[in-house]
Amino acid sequence: MSSSSNTNSIVNVQWLLQNLNNVKVIDASYIPTATRNFEEFQTKYILWPKVAAFTAEHIPGAVHFGLDTAYFPSKFIKFDLYPPEIFQKYIRLLGVNNDDHVVIYSRGPAAGMMFASRAYWTFKDGKWGREELIQCNNFLFSEATGSHVTGAISFPMANVIGSGGFISKEDVDSQIAKLGVTSGDQVYVACNTGIQASVIFVALERSGVKAKLYNGSMTELAYRAPELVNATGSV
């Protein structure tokens, strides 16, 4: 996965082998941890260790993007975003600078695409909050079951991910068309913690759909606007 201005930002192994000396490679592999205490985090900076999957093996020259370090736990959001200047300091510590062409990969769910998608989204625009949610349309929810935003359309990761990663753009286009969404439409995506929805964000972007991801997702919404939560499982 490549963070560039090109909307077709998904690259394959052959491309990476040919360009390995010209890019900065980020390994975003992650092992989920218990929710961190936000009050403790306010007073005690915690630099979480690299996950075992990275220390065991990784692409030569890759650096580790740790989700528990790249984000912080706020009162309502499990993976909240630092101010840009703080995030920039972290990325600079990884050896990544403004003009670098970055390629991101990971292991784990969604054929390894889930945590890489989250890291990719963090480098992009499209971040938004609860205030915009209240007045938006075209809302997709990436969890297959459970509570969701009232009126949201279920669009799970399985619609865009196959055994080898993201399915073809043409197949994703077909899935999106079934929703009545077309290129140029503004779509909003969410899940439980803002992680799975990152996969949908990447797929929509590749298909030319303007996507925004609600970072707080259901975790924040349940606290701050419970009237918008549908816990019945129905639309």
TrEMBL record:
One cellular-component annotation, GO: mitochondrion
Positions in coiled-coil regions: none
SUPFAM superfamilies according to UniProt: Rhodanese/Cell cycle control phosphatase
MF (Gene Ontology): thiosulfate-cyanide sulfurtransferase activity
Keyword Repeat: yes
Keywords from the named record: Repeat, Transferase
Gene3D superfamilies the record matches: Rhodanese-like domain
Pfam families: Rhodanese
Leader peptide range in chain numbering: none
Domain Rhodanese: residue ranges: 19-125, 143-230
Listed InterPro entries: Rhodanese-like_dom (IPR001763), Rhodanese-like_dom_sf (IPR036873), Thiosulphate_STrfase_CS (IPR001307), TST/MPST-like (IPR045078)
Statement: the UniProt record of this protein carries the keyword Transmembrane helix: no
Protein name: Rhodanese domain-containing protein
Source organism (scientific name): Caenorhabditis japonica
